[in-house]
Amino acid sequence: MAARDLDDELTISEFGRRAGLSHKALRLYDVSGLLAPARVDPANGFRFYSVSQLERARRISVLRQLDVPLATITEILAGTDEEGLIRLDRWWAAEQATNEARRATLEYLRDRLLRPSTPGLAPRPVLTREVPETKIATIRTDTDQQLLVGVIISSVMQIRAHLDRAGAVLTGGSWVIFHGAVTPESEAPVEVCVPFTGLVDPAGPIAIRVEPAHTEAYCTLTKDECAYPRIMLAYDLLSDWVRRAGVPTTGAVREIYHPNFPAAAGSDLAVDIAQPIEGPRK
């Protein structure tokens, strides 16, 4: 090895000190493929890093201080700085939404402890409507209740960015189809959907399909009422209506977010809980 290369080398201790990372962290990032050493001595297994790797290591250190998952860090650092910024902003928006959802859940629990005799959800009607055939872009993934809000926010942002680049026209808000029971203890598949018109190709996790026309029963909630577990009372209301009406269901239940949802105040109507059902015979 040339002398100039040796001058550029740092031991794992010196590299860790300058990057703000421990030996344990550096070994983890090596195993995960996030930050491999520039050279490993075959005789003794000592790891050596180059000075040029310090910037990447420092970015990893800062991202870990923000509790960014390793998989997300890999995505942020995989492309250009511009692409990394988009992925970082998407993750941060999801984190903020998750924290806001936790705050709303706390407020619900405090309200139940302060006023246990009041109903958790005010009475409201269950209505029906006809939904036309709709072209949608979707991301399907598994999640639990704790990560659900973040998954929804990041997926919607990713889908809308893809549609925007393709020149598509958005035709509504967004919705989430629950293909299984999402709970705090277990994951289930969910499908995040954004309707559009135009010619768009699938890309990565984003699929393009047509949602068939259908009849659905639904009830509408305010933004504050979307907090878990209060929102589950709306699911109960809808399920009870379907059972009493004696109509067969024809698809998975879904949460439909109105176009005004991001800017809606807590008391604004912003979400429909909807269940596809068998429509009137023609």
Automatic annotation (TrEMBL):
Coiled coil: none annotated. Pfam families: GyrI-like, MerR_1. PROSITE patterns: HTH_MERR_2. One of its GO terms (molecular function) is DNA binding. InterPro entries: DNA-bd_dom_put_sf, GyrI-like, MerR-type_HTH_dom, MerR_fam, Reg_factor_effector_dom_sf. Keywords: DNA-binding. Residues 9-79 form the HTH merR-type domain. This is DNA-binding transcriptional MerR regulator.
